[in-house]
Design brief:
The chain has about 475 residues and is α/β, with parallel strands linked by helices. Helix content is about 30%, strand content about 20%. It contains 14 helices and 19 strands. The strands form 4 sheets. Strands 7-8-10-9-13-17-14-15 form an 8-stranded mixed sheet, with helices on both faces. A 6-stranded mixed sheet has the order 1-6-5-2-4-3, sandwiched between helices. Helix 12 links the parallel strand 14 and strand 15. Helix 5 runs parallel beside helix 9 and helix 7 packs antiparallel against helix 10. The longest helix is centred in the first third of the chain and has 19 residues. The two termini are about 35 Å apart. Bound molecules: ligand BES, manganese (II) ion and zinc ion. Manganese (II) ion (MN) binds next to loops. The site of ligand BES has 15 residues, from helix 11.
Length: about 475
């Protein structure tokens, strides 16, 4: 269950062709010979960002390539190389150290293609020689985690229902000898997950709501406990507050948070981080049937807070309320949740920059710094207490559709989650978009892994540095 091109990074260098990283308006005659400079000139190759030019050898075969770095090389741009270079074995020239390693990982990420529904066999792909000394297996684990999240998001809702998410969770758990517990359908009521049940109960019998819980080395009570929580709405029709056609079109991606939690969980376990791990995924379909929950209903929640439903389209926070409450029962030291929670997040920061919410300044700093270091950015937004009253209800303890005056929909959604977040340890919430709407070479339109590499880097830093 992974579409990563596993051979995208290799350690053997024999027979590789050079990709020269060329700064804009840099000297082209430094590239070897006059013929190369003439070829570059004839193709108007100036070294601007992302410009690619393959070089012919005297025998008509490929001799190498030039790749534009603009004013300074952005390692992420190497994603485009994976999508555009001809098949064959390539090596990067003109970039070293951490930059070269970041570029190699970017190359692996750029090789992702979702062709599950295409008849034609995958064509041969370019491969890259990993820079000397790079931990290639570690990089491939990271790339595979991103590919898993993207593949889950890309897969249509018909083929990525609650059961398929459960199946993937079981595979991930069994790989690392972790435990899995699944609470499904009516059993959610008996086990006291009323909000997850209410949101998902309208789905067809085969697609009943469930809470999936993975536990890894929980007996190691000497280790800190990390909880990862994900929103797994396999399709968000809006429920009875039905979305319009345009707003519903991409809602197969509404399980992106679950995909991120599972993929990051797999990565944490594969990396053998010295932590105890709990992954909690609420997998539901926000469907429409006679059994749908309704505007005006009052739901109970695991925490005991009652929730007035103002809008059935604000469903993610409801399932997360129960999942976060469950996370708290493990008394975690650190909880991270991922959710395609609001359209307002995209209005605030656009599709590429996920809002990060946490009350813990140290955690925020670590996440932002990790995101910068691994080119997986986040932007901190406030859990602004002044908007808390936007969640006040006349009828219940809280309402799920914030009062219109507060406007900041991503902030008020985060404030809602805060009411249910674990009281132990620190908590961060990421309102991810999980989608790339702008196709570029190496960044196909479709599922996007966001904040996951940043979180992994933060966890690695936090828990290997002997804290
Ligand atoms: N899944 C959506 C949020 C979403 C929409 C994410 C578009 C990415 C792109 C979520 O369940 C939702 O519908 N949220 C509503 C909340 C509102 C009804 C309070 C929203 O953001 O409009
Ligand atoms: Mn919704
Ligand atoms: Zn949703």
């Amino acid at each position: 269950m992974s579409v990563l091109h596993p051979e995208s990074l290799v350690t053997r260098a024999a027979g590789s062709l050079p990709v020269h990283i060329v700064r804009k308006d840099g000297p082209l005659d430094g590239l070897g010979d006059a013929a190369t400079a003439a070829w570059a000139g004839a193709h108007d190759f100036t070294g601007k960002t992302g410009q690619l030019l393959v070089l012919p050898g005297g025998d008509g075969k490929l001799a190498g390539a030039l790749f534009g770095a603009g004013d300074s090389f952005d390692p992420s741009s190497a994603r485009g190389l994976a999508a555009r270079l001809p098949a064959g074995l390539w090596r990067l020239e003109g970039v070293n150290g951490a930059e070269a390693e970041a570029a190699a990982l970017a190359f692996a990420l750029g090789g992702y293609r979702f062709d599950r529904y295409r008849a034609r066999p995958a064509e041969a792909r370019p491969q890259l020689v990993a820079p000397k000394g790079m931990d290639v297996p570690a990089a491939l684990r990271i790339a595979a985690a991103c590919a898993l999240a993207r593949e889950m998001v890309d897969t249509p809702a018909a083929d990525m229902g609650p059961l398929q998410i459960e199946t993937i969770a079981r595979e991930i758990a069994s790989e690392s000898k972790a435990s899995v517990a699944v609470t499904e359908g009516e059993a959610l009521l008996e086990a006291n997950y009323p909000a997850i049940h209410a949101v998902g109960r309208a789905a067809s019998p085969a697609r009943q709501p469930r809470l999936i819980e993975i536990g890894w080395q929980l007996d190691r009570t000497d280790l800190p406990l990390v909880a990862l929580v994900g929103k797994g709405v396999v399709f968000d029709s809006g429920g009875l507050n039905i979305k319009g056609g345009a707003g519903m079109r991409n809602m197969k991606k509404d399980m992106g948070g679950a995909a991120h939690a599972l993929a990051l969980g797999r990565l944490v376990m594969q990396s053998k981080l010295p932590v105890r791990l709990v992954v909690l995924v609420a997998a539901v379909e926000n469907a429409i049937s006679a059994d749908s929950f309704r505007p005006g209903d009052v739901l109970n929640s695991r925490k005991g807070l009652t929730i007035e439903i103002g809008n059935t389209d604000a469903e993610g926070r409801l399932i997360l309320a129960d999942a976060l409450c469950r996370a708290g029962e493990h008394r975690p030291d650190l909880t991270l949740d991922f959710a395609t929670l609001t359209g307002a997040a995209r209005i605030a920061l656009g599709p590429d920059l996920p809002p990060l919410y946490t009350d813990d300044d140290a955690l925020a700093a670590e996440l932002l710094e990790a995101g910068r270091a691994v080119h997986d950015p986040l932007w901190r937004m406030p859990l602004w207490p002044g908007y808390r009253t936007a969640l006040d209800s006349e009828l219940a303890d809280v309402r799920n559709d914030p009062a219109a005056w507060a406007q900041a929909g991503s902030v008020t959604a985060a404030l809602f989650l805060q009411r249910f977040a674990p009281e132990t340890g620190v908590w961060a919430h990421m309102d991810i978009f999980a989608w790339n709407p702008r196709a570029r070479p190496g960044w196909p339109e479709g599922g996007a892994a966001q904040a996951m590499r940043a979180c992994h880097a933060m966890l690695t830093q936090r828990y290997s540095a002997g804290r």
